């Protein structure tokens, strides 16, 4: 089935998110859609999937105009979408998730779960998914959960499949498996739309590449284009994709963790007796598949888990058990992995978000009242220094693109006198131009003699920034290795497997 978008325009008030976009997706092709955050990719796919109605333009399937009032219409027309954040019910089985929203019944009005089980087995066998229809989704690894999403789309005979940032929570091995699944679907005649910011993945699977910038299609790229060429088309300028850094000159031990144990919200041990040392002037990267304790470990450094056991000393002083305010005052800068929930207040202006952790500072607050001139002067200087793209300092931070929101967080944390910088997933959902900027700032912080703890699920980022890499699996550190360790060996360690020749 050939999909064609003609002149798609979508406005939100005075903002034009999509501006006359033309796009053709052919059967048996993987069509990659590239663009910066805020370029309009997600809006375009939401129009295609019936979540938004276009203000202008039309959607055609095999030259027949389509009018979608919602996702149900899109699914019935043969369009399926695999969302970045899985749309699954964790306590339901694979088969139950399959028929959710499309419930078929047998005699007496009972759900046809047996038919759903057969459908899961049929599609799994065809594409090698290895899914148990009766397994509960919450018990499956994230790679398998993603395959459930794909099976859901295929069970409704989707001829066009949209993958929106599909590898965000996958291990390197699971990502490779996903790339093969996409090739298999393409070879079976499906039309694939692939949205990703990972240029390496684009080069692996793309048959066709379209670049969107500021809501418009700005060009097509050859499947064999280099990362540098693709990045320049996305951003509109040349981008340095490699991290320029001199070898670290580490100083004395600054941060020492000894037998740190943290329990998660469910009461289970999330961090299990972790001992680590970070020196001044080095980046220690913590790598691992999400859900293996990295989040809780990073949060414990900020005092977010006061019940944690063990010892964490910074510059010789114990910080475990101290309040978040006390830890911040000790010189810890913290970039949370979810900026929307824990890093910013979306309805507050940029200027206020830049001083969120300084409301006890005489420089910005006097007699319990914010000093507007001091706040605004600081905001204007930060906006200029950190290249935050905003109309003004009074713009609500939630209206900025993901990359610019992250720059607000980075600017706030790095503009203090730091003794430790903790960056959790610092470039998640950030475009290549902003990634270049954030990476440069992290290295500058290291070179200023500050110890840096980087938590990232992106192996390319870990390898590029780290001076040492600690790999976590099921709450434990399974090894600390140099950054020239191969991706394959790191991937095995992230799965709890020790590569040949490496001691457990």
Q: What is the highest CATH level, the class of the largest domain?
A: Alpha Beta
- N→C terminal distance: 51 Å
Quote the CATH topology of the largest domain.
Rossmann fold
Rounded radius of gyration (Å): 24 Å
Query: Strand order across the biggest sheet?
Result: 6-7-8-3-9-10
By CATH's scheme, which homologous superfamily of the largest domain applies?
P-loop containing nucleotide triphosphate hydrolases
DSSP strand (E) fraction?
A: 25-35%
Query: What structural class do the secondary elements suggest?
Result: alpha/beta
How many separate helices?
17
Mean pLDDT: 86
Which segments are poorly predicted (pLDDT under 50) over 5 or more consecutive residues? none
As for the number of domains, it is: 2
Residues in helix, %:
25-40%
InterPro entries: AAA+_ATPase, ABC_carbohydrate_import_ATPase, ABC_transporter-like_ATP-bd, ABC_transporter-like_CS, P-loop_NTPase
GO cellular component, one term: plasma membrane
Keywords: ATP-binding, Cell membrane, Membrane, Nucleotide-binding, Repeat, Translocase, Transport
Domain ABC transporter: 3-239, 255-499
List keywords for this structure.
single chain, alpha/beta, 504 residues, Rossmann fold, transport, 22 strands, 6-stranded mixed β-sheet, 2 domains
Summarize, please:
The protein has 504 residues and is α/β, with parallel strands linked by helices. The chain contains 17 helices and 22 strands.
